[in-house]
Task: inverse folding
């Protein structure tokens, strides 16, 4: 499709929702759906100060690239797909993940975004550490993860993002 | 809910997706879902140069406010809701509508955004004129509209947005 792109980015920079939305919009698209995941100030009644993310970067890029292909098989009318995940420290209210998907008509983009964030949580080797206001943080694996990869060396407890 | 807002804006200004996303994000929310409707360069094989929108502004604000209440009844965990619709000329690739909804967890925000754009198309008295590269544009009513309001005086053919 003319001008269609799959964009996968892992970065320690602040994620720019407006720029990411614009990056998938094209003269042939009428709809862009987005999901923005942000750091919450609480988790199971504990006060969260910030999150920290780490990834197996090579594997994460490969799996997110494969996820783009999976989306295109399910929704053939998609135009462009952008998946940006932040690494390192992400303060409360800041975005850790931004997904933007465009299509000529809205149903495809809306459904694909929901599937994309569900699958990202299940497959991407990206871990998060919740840092609480009291006591040590805890690295752990995402409860939605279906394959529980081993955490990077030196980190004992992880959560997949 | 602390800091929760319903924001409804009708404006001739360019819509800022990043600012609208940030306007609904709060320390207690982990998810923001957005829908961005943009002007496409074609409609039924005709080349579209731009769209023009007009609204019964008072009625549109009232109905979009009621739509926010409807969303809150269906998804009680929603935090903030922003519905911005542009009026006047909207060039190809520019946004005519931006919806952003936040919630602690993602499913509520994602489902509410899809319902919101479906309902906006069905109920809001906002018309669009497609201006083609050849010949006159045509004001007309949205094919999804369930109540087909009379167009403003002086405009003969309309489409609800």
Result:
């Amino acid at each position: 499709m003319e001008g269609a792109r799959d964009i996968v980015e892992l970065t320690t920079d602040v994620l720019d929702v407006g720029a990411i939305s614009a990056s998938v919009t094209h003269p042939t698209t009428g709809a862009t759906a987005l999901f923005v995941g942000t750091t919450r100030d609480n988790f199971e009644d504990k006060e969260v100060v910030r999150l920290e993310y780490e990834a197996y970067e090579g594997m994460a890029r490969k799996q997110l690239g494969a996820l783009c292909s999976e989306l295109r098989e399910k929704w053939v009318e998609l135009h462009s797909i952008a998946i940006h995940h932040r690494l390192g420290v992400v303060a409360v209210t800041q975005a850790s993940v931004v997904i933007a998907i465009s299509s000529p008509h809205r149903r495809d983009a809306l459904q694909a975004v929901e599937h994309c964030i569900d699958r990202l949580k299940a497959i991407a080797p990206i871990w998060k550490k919740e840092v609480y206001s009291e006591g040590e943080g805890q690295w752990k694996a995402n409860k939605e993860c279906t394959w529980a990869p081993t955490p990077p060396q030196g980190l004992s407890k992880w959560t997949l993002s």
